[in-house]
Specification:
heterotrimer; A mainly alpha; B mainly alpha; C alpha+beta; A: mainly alpha; MetI-like fold; 75% helix; B: mainly alpha; two-stranded antiparallel sheet; 13 helices; 2 strands; 3% strand
Chain lengths: 263, 283, 351
């Protein structure tokens, strides 16, 4: 395409788009270090809002909840999603229905899944709390893990499985000694993706966490803080949350050169 | 390997998806046809009232408004995203991966935080107002935050990276000789773009548009945070039925419409991709 | 001679520190079928793209019909290119692909239709007009690409490795087909190829490029029979090389024997003497003679290739015997033979 385009115009477009994408985030980062805490005036560099953040019991409690949800749902989703991916790829016969079910959690609007789960849990009289959030997060997380692992398995040479069987290995040994090592980077990449999705997920958690204050996750806390009275700590919190997900996902992408599917 | 073993591997995940996605979604479908109980519960008698209520001018208005906002947001996102993707695809090969990485990076950060960033930007004391003042504007600034435009800006901002990704895919796969062939046959730069490059990259545009539209029309976070208290889109309406008004059957009926719109658009997108047959494929 | 259709004058093109085109001078006449021959990286494709207008020369001129077109963009030149990948528009039918260039000229619909139908007739694809490119075979796509460029009736048609993507059988047919079409339309063709056989079979004149420079140009016969350099001799056809030391016009091979050559393109010092396999004779006339052992024979139908090991050359010497000659004197591995060849068939080059 080079040679048929105007380089100066392309540069202008890129500058404008990157400015649009990065200025708001940068402002937030800068603000988190602003002594005064207000966007109106720069009163000096300070990390005091980060200090405030760590003294805020509500925020720390929510952060702990989020961590619990993310860790457990990631472990479950990684196991289920990996097995699913291997099963689907071994099966070779592609079922349209099966594909739809696996694909659905990634495209279904969050709000729909959220209310569906809320109705489901309430009609079964399940007491809602962190456990229901975990169960719900596994639904979309396993789909993402599955899609990352499947992408890797697409280029997997299945004849090595036959070779392993031919050499006398059982199905389990073959999976453990041959298949898993080859796809381990993809499994880890999928797990990291699931972990950040779970860390950042708000809508489904909001509907399935129940009413108790002790099952509030970090995104729920952030939503409440934004909606009902912004305090300067939120800038520091925003900066941390953003950095954590970006770092983990960058790591995930490094591990998995095949690239991540869109969120 | 026999065909049995894959089933053992798949069954835990499929059981999970069935129990916690398929069944709850079917439940929503069913709920939409039940009557609302007197004290907010559900009365298990069949009715079409909820479906009919969705066509009530009040709610139909909200539907149209949501579709309008989602359509505007998707259109703007596609125009900006396509231009950005085009510029990235036109950059030297070795820089493209880096540019794409940084274009998608914001997408990986927390949605709420990204939306919050625009509250900071559009606030009465925010950066945009600050810049206007700095340029010597001292009159009363129009209200920026808690407006329809703020919601559109927020939606475009949040979903732009995805559109860039979706449009970049077919653009980068384009055989450069095809654009050159058009030039060689007498086409100007603009003609080449309009008649060759654009039609061949329609699938990316369709994917980007549908994605932004679907996620925007059901969104309730952005309207709630950037649109202010009185601003309602379908997402907020559904939210209200479940969490405040306690009219679950009506909320379920509304989300059935959401799902229908989503499925309709996805079908349309598949159709658009198939129609541009061979487009984007390499020779 | 009249004014040439195309004059390339001292053309230069650099990419960074690489000199892709390093001062090329070349004239091409109206109605010629011209081949640019070279290995990859020789600059042949850059030169072609320069003629089409996709590269602007850093120095020198491209003169078409007496007018300097160096800075005229591709869409304003009466030059069309048939791309190596064919570059057919995948979203347009065969008809639409071919009509595209005529639409750009602003012709009336009826006129466009007439001209497209006419060219579809020539390439015998009339009944496939509504197909999309991905529903065509490789050979059909190639013909559509040709028609799309030809239908504009350019002054100059450029073809970038036109037969590269076809299988061997189809290539042979298309070589003749291209020649027929060129003849029929009377348009000047410039073809870029790395395949020397293709260049020799099709072209009226051939130019050999190496490292951005023009090594030699001439008719296929001249290029084959009178190569001007060791590279040209090696690049075209099969050639036997004998390393020699030259002193005062006498060439001495590594075993001390003297080789006589009429054309000597080298000064005193090390070099090679070169002779084509078909110029070697068994016990025939010729100033040069050499004894060798047959190591292998290979039957090629029309002729027999004989591989010889001699003390005069480190590499195997190849000899081609006609079927008659081979029958008159049956050979098998291990036989010792004496071969002769003439001084006028021998050329010497610097290393």
């Amino acid at each position: 395409m080079r040679g048929t385009t105007n380089p100066r115009l392309m540069l202008m477009i890129l500058s404008a788009v990157f400015a649009f994408l990065y200025i708001p985030i940068s402002v937030l980062f800068a603000l988190s270090f602003n002594e005064g805490g207000l966007p109106t005036a720069w009163t000096g560099f300070s990390v005091k809002w980060y200090g405030e953040l760590f003294r805020n019991a509500d925020i720390m409690g929510a952060a702990l909840n989020t961590l619990i949800v993310a860790v457990i749902s990631t472990i479950l989703a990684t196991i289920l999603g990996t097995l699913l991916a291997v099963g689907v790829e071994i099966r070779r016969r592609k079922g349209r229905f099966l594909e739809t079910i696996i694909f659905a959690p990634m495209i279904i609007p969050d709000i729909v899944l959220a209310i569906a789960l809320l109705s489901f849990f309430s009609l079964l009289n399940v007491t809602m709390g962190l456990h229901t959030v975990i169960v719900s997060h596994v639904v979309f997380n396993l789909a993402f893990v599955c899609s990352v692992v499947r992408a890797r398995l697409k280029t997997f040479d299945w004849s090595i499985v036959e070779a392993s069987t031919d050499l006398g290995a059982s199905m389990f040994t073959t999976l453990w000694r041959v298949v898993l090592p080859v796809m381990l980077p993809a499994v880890i990449a999928g797990a990291l993706l699931a972990f950040t999705l779970s860390l950042d997920e708000f809508i489904i958690a909001f509907f399935t966490a129940g009413a108790g204050r002790d099952s509030i996750t970090l995104p729920m806390q952030i939503f409440a803080m934004i909606r009902f009275g912004v305090t300067p700590e939120i800038n520091a919190l925003a900066a941390i949350v953003m950095t954590v997900s970006v770092v983990i996902l960058a790591l995930s992408q490094r591990l998995n050169r095949g690239g991540l599917p869109g969120q | 390997m026999t065909d049995r073993k894959p089933l053992y591997l798949m069954s835990p995940a499929l059981a999970w998806l069935t129990a916690f996605m398929v069944v709850p979604c079917l439940l929503i479908l069913a709920l939409g046809f039940f009557r609302r109980g007197i004290y907010g519960g559900i009365e298990y008698t069949f009715t079409l009232e909820n479906i009919a209520l969705a066509f009530d001018p009040l709610y139909a208005g909200i539907f149209l408004k949501s579709a309008w906002i989602a359509g505007i947001s998707a259109s703007i996102a596609v125009v900006i995203g396509y231009a950005a993707a085009y510029a990235i695809a036109a950059a030297p090969q070795r820089r493209q991966a880096t540019l794409l990485f940084f274009a998608v990076l914001p997408f990986w950060s927390n949605y709420l935080v990204r939306t919050y960033a625009w509250i900071v930007m559009l606030n009465r004391e925010g950066l945009v107002a600050g810049i206007a003042t700095w340029f010597g504007y001292d009159g009363e600034l129009p209200k920026l935050l808690y407006t329809e435009s703020a919601v559109v800006v927020g939606l475009v901002y949040n979903y732009l990276p995805f559109v860039i990704l979706a449009c970049y895919a077919p653009l980068s796969r384009l055989n450069p000789e095809i654009a050159e062939a058009s030039r060689d046959l007498g086409g100007s730069g603009w003609t080449t773009f309009r008649r060759v490059i654009l039609p061949m990259t329609v699938p990316g545009i369709a994917t980007g548009f549908v994605f932004v539209f679907v996620l925007s029309i059901g969104n309730f976070v952005t309207p709630a945070l950037l649109g202010g208290g009185n601003f309602q889109m379908i997402g907020n309406l559904v939210y209200a039925q479940f969490l405040t008004a306690n009219d679950w059957p009506f909320g379920a009926a509304l989300s059935m419409f959401l799902i229908a719109i989503m499925m309709g658009l996805l079908t349309l997108q598949t159709f658009a991709t198939e129609r541009a047959s061979g487009a984007g494929r390499e020779e | 001679m009249n004014q040439p259709l195309l004059s390339i004058k001292k053309a230069q093109k650099h990419f960074g520190s690489v000199r892709a085109i390093d001062g090329i001078d070349l004239d091409i006449q109206e109605n010629e079928f011209f081949a640019l021959l070279g290995a990859s990286g020789s600059g042949k494709t850059t030169l072609l793209r320069m003629l089409a207008g996709f590269e602007v020369p850093d120095g020198g001129q491209i003169v078409l019909d007496g007018q300097d077109v160096s800075h005229i963009p591709p869409n304003k030149r009466a030059v069309n290119l048939m791309f190596q990948s064919y570059a057919l528009f995948p979203h347009m039918s065969v008809f639409q692909n071919i009509a595209y260039g005529l639409e750009m000229e602003g012709l009336a619909k009826a006129q466009i239709k007439a001209r497209v139908d006419e060219i579809l007739e020539v390439i015998q694809l009339g009944d496939l007009a509504r197909r999309k490119p991905d529903q065509l075979s490789g050979g059909q796509r190639q013909r559509v690409a040709l028609a799309r460029a030809l239908v504009k009736r350019p002054r100059l048609l450029l073809l970038d490795e036109p037969l590269g993507a076809l299988d061997k059988k189809l290539r042979g047919d298309m070589q003749l087909e291209l020649k027929r079409i060129q003849h029929e339309f009377g348009i000047t063709f410039i073809i870029v190829t790395h395949d020397q056989e293709e260049a020799l079979v099709m072209a009226d004149r051939v130019a050999i490029l190496k490292d951005g420079k023009l090594l030699q140009s001439g008719t296929p016969r001249e290029i084959y029979e009178q190569p001007g350099s060791r590279f040209a001799a090696d690049f075209i056809g099969v050639m036997n090389f004998f390393p020699v030391q030259s002193s005062g016009g006498t060439l001495r091979a590594q075993d001390g024997s003297v080789i006589q050559a009429d054309a000597i393109h080298m000064a005193d010092g090390p070099g090679v003497a070169a002779v084509r396999p078909e110029r070697l004779r068994l016990d025939g006339p010729g100033e040069n003679s050499m004894t060798g052992t047959v190591t292998a024979t290979a039957y090629h139908g029309l002729d027999l290739q004989v591989h010889l090991k001699t003390s005069a050359a480190p590499d195997t010497v190849v000899m081609r015997l006609t079927a008659d000659a081979a029958e008159a004197r049956p050979l098998s591995a291990g036989d010792t033979v004496t071969v002769n060849w003439a001084a006028r068939d021998t050329r010497a080059f610097a290393d």
